[in-house]
Structures are given as C-alpha cells and as structure tokens.
Amino acid sequence: MGFYDVGYHGSEIKTPVLDRLSAAGVRLENYYVQPLCTPSRNQIMTGRYQPYCVPLEEKLLPELMLEAGYSTHMVGKWHLGMYRKQCLPTRRGFQSYFGYLTGSENYYTHERCYFIPQLNVTRCALDLRDGEETSPSYLNLYSTEIFTHRAVNIIKEHNAQKPLFLYVALQAVHAPLQVPERYTKPYSFIKNSARRHYAGMVSAMDEATLAGGSNWPLRGRKWSLWEGGVRGVGFVTGPLVEQPGTVSRELIHVSDWLPTIVGVAGGSTNGTKPLDGFNVWDTISKGEASPRQELLHNIDPLYIDDSPCPGKASGSEHELLDSLMKNSLRRNSMTGSVSVPPFNVSMHAAIRYKNWKLLTGYPGCPVWFPHPGETVDEVTDEVLPLKKLMLFDIDADPEERNEISHQHPEIVNFLLKRLDQLQKGAMPINYPPDDPRCDPQHTGAWGPWQ
C-alpha cells in the first residue's frame, strides 16, 4: 500500500474505516518498513533482520504469544518458507491457519503461476490452505472477502475468557490488480485503469479492516531505498492507548512490533536471538521519545532493479553504475579533514540516524512519481545526476530533494562508519537457485516437497 493511498493522507481513495480507526488511536507518521514485503513480514515475526526464509531455529512472534497464554491464529499471506512442513505457520506457533504460502496469486482461482528455470516450464497450481490441507472449494471467491470472513468467524467463535492473537495478512493490495466491479464503480472518475482497479482493491481492503499505488509526494517506489520505498502507513488503536487521537512522529521500524506486542501482552522475549527491534509501546501510547535513534534500511551488494524507471531518470542507474565502476569515492570531494572509512559506497545501502539519512550506490528508481491523475509525461521535476553517496535531512526534506553531503562531512563519515560496522556483522547474502523438486505437477498445489 502506497504512502498516499489512505484517506487521511489526502488520497482520492476513500478509506473511511482506516480513517476512523486511526483517528481514534495514534497515527505513526515516521514509521518505516523494508523495501519489499517479505523482509518486512519477516521482521514482524522475528524482530530481526533476516534472510527471506526464516531459519527454523528462530523463535517467532506467535510462539512467544502462545507462551504468554494467548490463542494464536493466522489468516492470509505467509511467504516465509514452505519447503518442509516444519516451515509452515501451523508449525511456527499458529494454532490455526487459512491462507496461501507463496508471494502472489490470482485473487479468484487462488492459483500461482511460476516459471521453474531448471525445468524450463511454467506451472500454475493451487495455493490456498486451511491448516496444512489444500482448499480447492473457494474457486471464484475473492480472497479479500474470504479472508475477512474467516477472521470475523475466528473472533466470533473465540472464548473471550482467553486472550486472542490474530494475525491477518490480506492479499490486497498486492498485484495482480483484481477486484469485483462494485468496488471500482465509485472511482469511474479515475482515468488510469491500473489506478482505478487499485483504488477498488484498497476500498475492499478497507471494508475488511503495486502497480497502481502511489507514494506521492515521496520519492521512489517499492524496491528502492528512497522514502517512497520504505516509509509505511501505520497506526495503533484500542483501549490501551493512553493518548488517543494523536499523531506520532517518533522513529519506529517494522522490527519493533515483536518486542512491543509481546511486551504489551505481558510476555517475554527471553529465548529469542538478539533482537534488532525495540519496545516502542510508551512511544506510541504515552507519546514518549522513541528508544530508536538509528535505522538500517538495507545493505545489499547484489541489488538489481529490473523494473524500468520512467521518464528522464531512465538513464540514471546506468550513468551512476558506470561511474561507480570507474571511480572510487573521491576523498577530496568532502570538505574538512575527516577521513573516509572503507565502506564500499558503490553498494546499495541506506541508513537513518535521527533526522539524517545516508544513501550509497544506486538506491533504486529516483523519480518523484506524479500525483494520481497526472501521467509520467506530465512530471516536470528534473532528476539531477545521482551521486555515489547522498545525505538528506528527512525532517526538513522528506521528499529528498536537497542533497547536502557536502555540507555535513562529519555526519557522512559517522554514518559510513556505522554502515561498515553493520556490514562486517552481517550474514552473507544468499539467493539459492530454485529447487526443481518444488514442481507441483503431481500434487496440483504448491507446498512442502521435502
């Protein structure tokens, strides 16, 4: 969901339920997620920066909630591993599960089509499960509606004498852009078809609680380290909030949810590996200062943005990468006598400290995408050539228009040192090849194969 795609951010998309719930709670306006959905989901479940498939030795959020005495249930998208049954949500702390295991699928047939390169074949197979069993009986039923129906039933049938932890990860508003026509009719004024369908999907999702999405006025998009790729829409509501009807601009990250939720539930994070997240409940509920001052957006030496960048910025990546290959960081490009640490500034990385944000390498498509209703051709913002490293004051410049690394060499040096320290302590990035044994030809459904 794009930063702009909620009613209380001024969007043309109507989200009355989200607007009402958030107005009665605390709106988080300095809240960050990872540039992709699975790493964000991973951090919700573990409170840690993780590889895309959660190691089995990790203790997940639902396991901690079980220990705290809660009933635990999940509805919706898992996408945190499925090659063995031990990876399934019902083996990772959830007492019940209804949803799908992979990244995206058809909203009506609940099939996922995927090209298996080792077999040189595209397989389309069912991906919908109730518990650990496939569920073929929901053909032509829209996923947002069936997931909502299941979540409501769980709440209705739950014994109120025992606390409930229900994790709902709706498929909406992930691609493909599919929605019943009744949801798009109110948006006939939106000329762009993708945006119109997306608006309908958001409305369907709103009732329940990326093509087509909008992060306006922020820079960038999903899969980038610009604010448009990492700033999320978030709020907390409920009777435990001590200062309802407020807005928090304190720094909060998706990895903070595990220690925060477990803490509010009266549970313990003992037994987990060292957490990257903080308990930010007093920040949210009482308006206190966030314990978080630093936020690592990402470090990825293998980053490739394979989606075309529109407009005049289409050559930015090639120009910058060519420059990075030909030149190392010019130490004399920064004023003062501050020495530059050995962090490789050609690497795709970004880090935030208080109001400062440093980006290195190619952050992703650098465009300020237009306000919905405009076309890319109508964008008049000239994207200046990107630098090997860039510094922004996000509090003063949330749209990342004023690059100021030359004005603050000491801040640049400090953040480069932090990136170097974090990189040295990081696990090596590993993208294993697809396992051809995942082929669902004989089972008719995606699922465990080992």
From TrEMBL:
One of its GO terms (molecular function) is metal ion binding. Its cofactor is Ca(2+). Signal peptide: none annotated. Residues 430-450 are annotated as: Disordered. Keywords: Calcium, Glycoprotein, Hydrolase, Metal-binding. It comes from the Eukaryota. Pfam families: Sulfatase. Residues 3-208 form the Sulfatase N-terminal domain. PROSITE patterns: SULFATASE_1 (PS00523), SULFATASE_2 (PS00149). InterPro entries: Alkaline_phosphatase_core_sf (IPR017850), ARSB (IPR047115), Sulfatase_CS (IPR024607), Sulfatase_N (IPR000917). Belongs to the sulfatase family. This is Arylsulfatase B. It comes from Bagarius yarrelli (Goonch). The lineage of its organism: Eukaryota, Metazoa, Chordata, Craniata, Vertebrata.
